[in-house]
Amino acid sequence: MKTCVRNPAHNEMWLAALEGKYGDGKPFGREEWDALLGNFQAVTDYPAAMFAEELVEMYPDAKVVLSNRDVDKWFQSVSQTIDWRYNDPILYILSLIDSHNASWSNMFYRMWAIFSRGDFAKHGKAAFEDHYAHVREVVPKERLLEYRVQEGWEPLCRFLGTEVPEEEFP
How far apart are CA 21 and CA 96, in angstroms? Predict the structure, then answer.
């Protein structure tokens, strides 16, 4: 999400991807995904998380780390951050008067309305659980690591085929 805030061109591309999947736009193929993600080695969080099925299909060598969280703690955190921002009148006003904010907020509003089914307080936990079930369904087991940060470096590094760093896990 941080990259989206800093890069208006990415917002336009993510918005086009959202419209291709959930609206009347053209679904993204490999060419469009490469144009959007070609300079990255990994994606995290939203809006990429809304395209698990597409990205797994387009990038058959990619591995997926599903960060398992307690749904209630996640819900509380997201209520105070992402959903709060979604309902923030200042962001809306800024989107009307500043093109940089407009680019990001247009994508953000569309993405969050889809994920939260229009009402995060009412549907957020179900959306979370449905997303996790969907990822488990579409990602081949050999490409999926269900991970809790409390597990530290070892399972993550083993899955990614990298050495465990000497520094303590943050």
Answer: 26
